[in-house]
Amino acid sequence: MKRFVLLIALFTIGISVNAQYKQAIGLRFGLPSGLSYKTFTSEKNAIEGILHLGNGIGLTGLYQIHNQAFGVTNLNWYYGFGGHVHATNRNFGAYGNGWRASGRNNRPEDGSLDLGINGVLGLEYTLQEIPLVFGLDISPIIGLSSAGGTYIGTASSLAIRFHF
């Protein structure tokens, strides 16, 4: 009987550990758009990196804190902060002006470098039957451009990632 109870306890622990994914990779649509990689550093803390393309190339890094949302299994809300760097080159691709709200006629200059801080607030749902994660968030952004402008704005995005 003790072995049976121990076996059930180990099986239950195994299921609860698998309910939270450890890593995920996929695509992020919106601002910034690009390739997204997310890894959990603990049960509630995660780091997300986003490689974004459009009018150049950029990288955004976000530290996120996750909590269960509305008592729904596999649904989390998260908040956090981070930063971004973006090197502008309009020959790289036409993506638009993104989150720039002020500066030189709201147009990025070729060869400019943007640096900024980002906040993030969102919801994320993890499917267990299929290893997919869906995330929807909004980000307040403040940045500086070497072209002489500053920008303040918000961005929203949808992420679809494969978790493992």
What does this structure look like?
- The protein is mostly beta strands and 164 residues long.
- It has one domain: Porin.
- 10% of the residues lie in helices and 57% in strands.
- It has one helix and eight strands; from the N terminus they run αββββββββ.
- Strands 1-2-3-4-5-6-7-8 form an eight-stranded antiparallel β-barrel.
- The two termini are 35 Å apart.
- The N terminus is likely disordered.
Give the helix proportion (percent range): 10-25%
Beta-strand content bin = over 45%
Radius of gyration, Cα only, in angstroms?
19 Å
Task: Characterize the overall form.
Answer: elongated
What does the average pLDDT come to?
81
Distance between the termini: 35 Å
**If helices are DSSP runs of H or I spanning 4 or more residues, what is the number of helices?**
1
Please tally the β strands and state the result. Answer: 8
CATH architecture: Beta Barrel
Instruction: Report the top-level CATH class.
Output: Mainly Beta
The CATH topology label is: Porin
Secondary structure: elements and pairs:
Layout: H1 2-18, E1 23-30, E2 34-40, E3 45-53, E4 56-68, E5 75-88, E6 113-126, E7 132-145, E8 150-163
Keywords:
about 160 residues; disordered N terminus; mainly beta; eight-stranded antiparallel β-barrel; elongated
Give a brief rundown of this model.
Helix content is 10%, strand content 57%. The chain has 164 residues and is mainly beta. The chain has a single domain, classed as Porin (Beta Barrel), CATH 2.40.160.
